[in-house]
Structures are given as C-alpha cells and as structure tokens.
Amino acid sequence: MISRQLSTMSGTVPPIVSVVPSRALVDEKIKVLVENLPPGSPVTLHSLHHSEDRDYWEAYGHYVSDHRGTVSVAKDLSFGGTYTGKEAMGLLWSMRPVPGSRKGLRLRKRDVCSPMLVNISVHSGHIAEGFRQQPPLASALIERWYMAPGVQRISIKETGVRGTLFIPPGPGPFPGLLDLWGDGGGLLEYRSSLIASHGFASLALDYSSSDDQYPLFSSIEAAFSILKDHPQVIPERVGIYGLSLGSILTIFFTAESAVIKPFCCVCISGSHIYPSGKSRKGMNHLLLTKLNKVRLDENNHHIWRDVGRAIFHTPSNQVDVGKVNCPMLLVNGLDDQNWPTVESAEDMAEKMNAVGKGHLLTRLEYPDTGHLIEPPFSPHFRATNFIVEATKEKVIMLWGGQTKPHSDAQEDSWRKILAFLQHHLYSSLTPKVKL
Amino acid sequence: MDRTQSCVKLSVKPSRGLMDEKFVVLVQNVPPGFQLTIHALHKCEEGHSWEAFAHYTANTTGTVNVSEDPSLGGTYSGVEQMGLLWSLRPVPGSKPGLRMRKVDIQTPMEVTISVYQGHQTEGFMDQVQLAGAVVERWYMAPGVRRVPITEGGLTATLFLPSGPGPFPGLLDLWGGEGKLVESRAALLASHGFASLALDYLTPKITIETGKIVDNSYFETAYRVLEQHPKVVGSRIAMMGLSLGTSMTLKMAVYSQVMKLRCAVCISGTHVQPIDGSLEEMLNFCRENAGKIRVNENQTIFRDLLLPIPTDPALKVDVGRLQCPLLLVVGDDDENWPAQESAVDMKDMMEQAGNSHLLTVLLYPKAGHLIEPPYSPHARASTFVPANSHQELVALWGGETVAHSRAQEDAWRKTLVFLREHLYGCTMTVEH
Description:
Number of helices of chain B: 8
Oligomer: heterodimer
Helix content of chain B: 10-25%
Radius of gyration of chain B: 23 Å
Number of strands of chain A: 21
Strand order of the largest sheet of chain B: 10-11-13-12-14-15-18-19
Strand order of the largest sheet of chain A: 10-11-13-12-14-15-18-19
Number of helices of chain A: 9
Radius of gyration of chain A: 23 Å
Structural class of chain A: alpha/beta
Largest sheet of chain B: 8 strands, mixed
Distance between the termini of chain B: 49 Å
Structural class of chain B: alpha/beta
Largest sheet of chain A: 8 strands, mixed
Shape of chain A: globular
C-alpha cells in the first residue's frame, strides 16, 4: 500500500524488462534488455525457475546501466553473480538450486508438451541473496520449449518396447533417430522432442526397466525396427543417438547387431565396452565385479571412472570397433569423472585406424567438461543423486566439469551434432524433385 | 513401394512469436536454382481458410531466405519478410466480404507454412508438399494477465503486463461494430501497458436497458484504471480507432475527470456535436445518413461528416488539448474523412498555439482499418453497425501492400510514442 502511494505521488514508473523471443525452443538464444533504469545504476538481473520436482533454481548477474538507463545482457558485462563477463545466456546455463535446496538435484523436464517457465527480474543494487524476500523492480516471464509447434508426440507401447516417438511437422517422410538416453530416470523425452523440432523423427526409448518385463537388448533391436518401418520415416536414413550407457549400447549394436545398421551415430560420453551377457543382469554383474574401484572424493561423492577403466582394460570386455561401418561422432568431456570416455575414444580411434576406418570417426573432446553433456543452456550438474541399478544404492555421483566450460561445450557440441546429423541424414539424400 | 523422399528443410524462427514480431522463413537443401512456392495456410475461428503464397528461386547454395530474397510473384512480390502473413486472403470459393479477427486472444493463431515444387498458384490442397512447419502467433506474451472487468457497470477487459508493476495505463476503444475487441489491448500489455479494452457500443448495460452510454461510462473506465493497484494513476493514455477516436477526442478535451497523459487516434475525426456524448454523435450520423453512398454494392460512409464544419459546435475544439496527440491516417480511407479531419485539426491547433502537441502520420494508399501489423488487409468487408441488424458491405479502402506497410510503421511509431509519454524513456532499437 505504501509503495503504491509513493509511486503514484511521484508518478514514477518502473523499469522495463523485455526478453526476445519470449517463447523459444530451449536451444534458441534470447536477448534480455532492461530499460528506464536511472543512468549508471548498479542492478542485479535474476532468473528463477520452479521445477516440476518443486525445487527452485536461480541464476543472477551484476550489471551497471548506461547513460540512457539501459542494460543489455547480450552486450554488457556481468561483474559478479553465477556468471561473469559477456554472457547472453548466462541467466539460463548458470542456474543452480537456490540456497537451502535438497542436495544432488538435477533439472530435467518430464512433460515436454508444456514449456519450462523462467522469470527474469531486475533488482536494485548488486545482491547475492534474498531475491524472493525483496520484490523486483520489474520482471518478465519467458517460456522455454522442448517441442516446436506441429511436432507430433506418439506413445509407443508394443511388445517389449516402451517409448515415445516424435514426428516433425510436414509431409515427411523424415530421417529417423533412435534416442538412447542415459541410465536412470525412466522415459525421458526431452532430447527426442527437441531433435524432432529440428526435422528428425526421434524415438525415445525407456530401457530402465528390468530384463524380465522388457528384455533390454531385444527391446532396442525392436525399437530400431519400429522406427525403420514407420511410414513417416525414411528407412535408409535411421541413426542412433546415445548418452552414457546409451552410447555404450549404441557402439555395441552398431558393431555387432545384424538387425541394427544405423546410417550414422552420435555417442556422448560413452565407450566401447562389451555389455556382458547382452542383458541388464549381465551388465550389472560386470559392474559388481569392479565395484571395489569406486573412489570417493572429499564430499563422499562417487567417482566411477576407475570402474570403467578396470572393465575397459580387459580386452575381452571391448567391442570390436573395427566392425563399425558408419560415421560416428563421439562427444566427450576431459573432466569426465564417471567414465574413462576420452581414453576409450583414443583406443577406438587407434583400432579403427588400424583397419582403415579412421575416417568414419569424429572426436569432439572438451576441456573441463564433465559426463552429462546435455542440450545447450541447460544448467551444469557436477554431482547429482543417482540410484545405482546394480546395487540399488542411493549415492551422489560425481559427473565432473566446471560450469562455464561445460556450458560452452554443451552449446558448441549441440550445434556440431545437429550439423553432423543434417549432413549425413539430410544432405546425402538425392532429391526426388526434378528441375 | 516407392515412397517419395524429400530432403527439403523448412524452418520458421521464431516458431512461437507475438502477433507483431517478425519471423525468418528459411528453405534449405533444394537444388541450386530450384523453383519453389512457399505457402501459408490459416483456418480462422469462424472456420474460413486463408492462404498466401510466393514464388522463389533458390540460390547457388540451394537456399531461399524470405527476409532477403525477392518473391517473383504470388500474393506478394519483392523482398517481404512478413508477406506470408499480411497478404493472407480467403481461399478461392470463400464467402465474400470476410475480415480476419480473433476473438479468443488467449490461444495463438496457427499458421501452416509449406513448400511446393515449382511456381504454383492454385490447387495447393491436392499437391504433395516438400516440407511443412507450423507457426504460432500470440496476442499475449507469457505472464500477461487477462482480467474481465464488470465494476461500475462496465463491459471491459483489463490486460496487465508481466511483473510486479505498477504500470502506465491505457484505455482502448474500437469502432462502430461494437463488441469487446481485445486483440490490441492484449498486445499493448505485452509491451508493458496496463490496457483496458472497453465495449462502449454493445456493453451489457446497453443490451439490457437499450440505453446508450454517456461520458460518465468512459470516466468510470478511466477511474477503474486510475485506482487499480497495478496502474500508475498519473500515467494513463487513451487510444481509439474510427468511432473510438471520436470518444477519445471528446474525453481528452472536455472531461474534467480524465487527465490523459497522451492520446492516439487512428482513422478518426473530430467532427461531432460537442454537446452530449455518444448518443448525440450517433444521432448526428443518422441525420446525415443521406450522404452515404453506395457504389457497386459497397457502402461508402465518409461523406457523412463532410464537408468539415466551420461551426465550432460541431467539432471537438482540439485547440484546447493539453496532451500530446498522435493521429494515424490513411489517405485512401473510404469510411471516415480522417485525412480532411487531420488537416482541419492541425489548422485549429496551429491557430490555438498547441500544435507542438500534434503528430500526424499520413500513409499513402492506406485505408481505414489500420490495425496492429501483419494482419491481413480487407479493402471491403461485411459490416453490421452496432445495435442494428442491417448487414452491409463497407468499403474501407487501401491498397494491400501500402496498407500493410502503414500498419507496421504506425504500430512501431505508436509504441515509441506511448513509451516516451507513459514511461518517459525512448525505446532501444535493439529488438
């Protein structure tokens, strides 16, 4: 009441926060502009997101307005906060749980049909806390979408296969991608819906259930076939896109499977380990034999890199990558604490070169980047809660990476991944259109 | 089975935008020199289909960029970034006299953009597209709140911008067809103005009692805004289109209650009996109805108020105006003598010594319905004046390309004008 009287008495109007575009895909950049501030005033730009899991995530930067009372996040520099320097997207990629949050959180969107809402606000002065106690000077709400308009979402529930198929808008048919996301978390659709928004029919597969219900390996082969046979998919242009365990499976299937012959693959944070026993049980058993190699850091977070090393250094545990016949893009972080992905990549390159297939491999390796290389502008998670499938233990897993370089890697690799997929799955098609 | 393959890539960015935002339509991966047609299709709320299309030739990299390359023909030609929207027209075989308007502004307008081989002009529905995309065009930015207002006997909707506020306010009036038109107020709120769309011709109170509202109705609307906790009471503007201009000028000059910070008058006139209110204006029009012309089944209303009277009792004394006024006028306005009025208003203000408050934006070959940009232009459409049941075809005027340019330019200048007078700051050109 008092503040309203003051403002009507003096007739002052608040600053204006505008964000363009206000509705965008999660991999699209935004321009945040604040106007009508007093000239040369120190302000804090703050972003706030209330997640589906009911946690609060935030980021903030310290700015100074110019002689016209304007702050442009795309052009000006941040002098403090969760990011510094000229960072147009800093308010998104540097987000982290607010103080007092539960530990080990990870931000992943489950419902891709609704947008992620982020509130961008401007506060007086250079502050580092108390954002929710002090009302902002002005704010704007933005929507970040994992799905473009017109993308179709189709639930797949066939024998042994549980997943979601995303078809881009348009007549089709489209190149296809089998999306093997990482372990844990159930059916995660967000990467598939985003990839479909870029013109690829993408099938996100849930392979987190036990062998008894959905035998893992036959499930993956069945999913690949479902994709190939779909009327909206070009059967000769189906690839695979994996992360972590998904990449391990991708490399294995590409080399060994009679059914799965991808046109190209993208493997993020994986390695060429032979999934022992070709089943979930088999893989779990293999992990259990090397569990003694798990190290703990100073926070008691689990470092599994040596488990991976121990497995990988046993030749019988390696996939014969000489059998790979398609282009493969490997994306890894040099600070991956979870799995020896870069060492693996080196070994793969050596083995493939030896049989004259080195030209099929492209390796992207990023400094100070961890294991979870996700779509751009997603927050970085150095360590998060994880349930180890093999032991059912709840731990905090150290993934690695430092926020700024890791975010740069996410942004850079995403663009390169899309270009790789575009090149192999689109450009190589001979047009049926006649001049 | 031989399935046709297409590797053509079509993208529209942003895929979700506000109605007044530009987008970039890009076609890639076609052979160099390839001839193609880009087609836009929209099914409006009333169920009619609207389309636009343009012919392009791909460059040496197999790309067509609508914001950079010229259209060689279609519903627009030349380099027209937004041509696929503003040149939309009813598909062949549609009912005549259609005008595109969205009533539910909480959902987006959906447009399907497609690419076809060759330079096509018809039969799109029977052909195979090479690629397609869907674009959403929104009236409300995220966080904008829509609040129906019934207090004080008003029939109105308030749109509040995102954020804590308080915000400058704006009273938004449309024209002679009545009803509550929310589209512009929703967009203005998306730009930071707490905007109240007001139905003054067909409000509940008029429908129920048969009584036409008077000046106190508008003053009530002003008070509702002024007293609203999210509105800066000392910074309220008024905007009117067509008949809405008449009420805006009346209130701006004569109201003791309303202290407007600035006013925007689109396609309007100051000609009206200065005594009384809306009813007197409507009666005045009825008395002069003999001057209405009908040409080839199209009704031309403009002569109703011509010649511009010399009698001071018949025109708002704009020499007494104390706030900045922006007049937006098309020189091909067949519905209202907006240009003649603007000339007379300028004269009056120069004589009174307050012409420094006046800005006139006169657009060549623009018609009467100067609306927010990228909406299709209707040179004539069916029109049912409020509180009458007589449907006729009104000639609005304007030539499509010039009219669309006028809409784009006028809107931008209007936002700058409002920003300056209501926020006290100039707009950054960044966006």
